[in-house]
Amino acid sequence: MNAQVETVIDLDAIAHNVRVLRGFAQGAAVMVVVKADGYNHGAVQVARAALGAGARELGVTTVAEALELRAAGIDAPILCWLNTIDADYGAAILADVEIGVSSLEQVRVVEQAARKTGRTATISLKVDTGLNRNGVSVTEYPQVLAAVRALVDDRVLRLRGIFSHLAHADEPGNPAIDRQRERFLEAVALAKEHGLQPELIHLSNSAATLTRPDLHFDLVRPGIAVYGLSPIPELGDFGLRPAMTLQAEVTLVKRVAAGEGVSYGHRWIAPRDTTVALVPAGYADGVFRSLSGRFEVWLGGALRRNVGRVCMDQFMVDLGDNVGNVRAGDRAVLFGGGAGHPHALDWARLLDTIDYEIVCSPRGRAVRRYVGTGR
Length: 375
Ligand SMILES: *Cc1c(COP(=O)(O)O)cnc(C)c1O
Description:
Elements: E1 5-10, H1 11-25, E2 29-33, H2 35-40, H3 43-52, E3 57-60, H4 63-71, E4 78-80, H5 89-94, E5 98-101, H6 104-117, E6 121-126, H7 141-153, E7 157-163, H8 175-193, E8 200-204, H9 206-211, E9 219-220, E10 244-249, E11 252-256, E12 261-262, E13 268-269, E14 274-279, E15 296-299, E16 302-307, E17 315-318, E18 331-335, H10 344-350, H11 355-359, E19 367-371
Parallel strand pairs: 1-19, 2-3, 2-9, 3-4, 4-5, 5-6, 6-7, 7-8, 8-9
Antiparallel strand pairs: 1-10, 10-18, 11-14, 12-13, 14-17, 15-16, 16-17
Helix pairs in contact: 1-3
The structure holds pyridoxal-5'-phosphate.
Pyridoxal-5'-phosphate is lined by residues 33, 35, 81, 165, 205-206, 221-225, 231.
């Protein structure tokens, strides 16, 4: 029995995408980013498939996300890089989770946690090279380096890496990228002047992995590309395959007479006698109401336009003169990677956003189902 709304996750696509990324990485190790529950694909399952396909490490946002992977028995290196001051660093240290540090205050709380557990904490320094978001600021950096150096000497901390994050990676020729590269290398050099020897340095997200080999360094950190979506759609799909399909099972097919309105507010009036199908997924499941009347689903071998408003639990599509064999029980693909399917990018364009947000949207009654072996 399949759920009436499903996100089908193709683990073979994940494995394929990791292999594609390894090809682009040209010898740099691949850290697969599985934050936000694997971009809503399921962090544990994605991590296993990715590691099986040759990814070396995992990246997440929080300690809690890292611990979930450890609890599932995953023993690959895991880095988490965005935590509050009161996060459970002790648990991270005991689970051998690497902590991305962005301030002197954070160095101090990780130090305290390390002393309390009696274990050396593994950290990476996240340096701000121009994104001006997370990361050690230029002004605080020398103090942070001095503090880390002392703690490394005391074996309270182990400095595994230095990393940073790009602001314009999706515009490969943007000069801001070169500025960030320069600042990054300066930050690494300054750490070395403080007697610190990071084991690895890294800067590239998906876009830079695919387009900027000069930024690969020791390791790359792709996220969205692992899930088969292009970080720079204008440059094509780079051979990636979308891993997520959002689909729902048609509940009802019925005739509607010319002049009848469909769904709340009767925003669509049947221009002629027609046949419509009810798809039981709505905004509670991640189908945005603002898509009403503007999107299509793949159903019965054709694209079918949504008519009338998207509701909390359902929407209608018009089958017109081409009903085909569509009947209750058939699967309507809202977006996916198959031939003819609408793509997450179609929704992104309609909604003035990026496909990252689209794959993060399915929720509510949408149940995940995995296909493929991930090998
Ligand atoms: C999310 C994230 C990534 C992955 O970015 P993509 O654009 O999805 O490849 C890499 N590094 C950091 C620090 C991130 O927060």
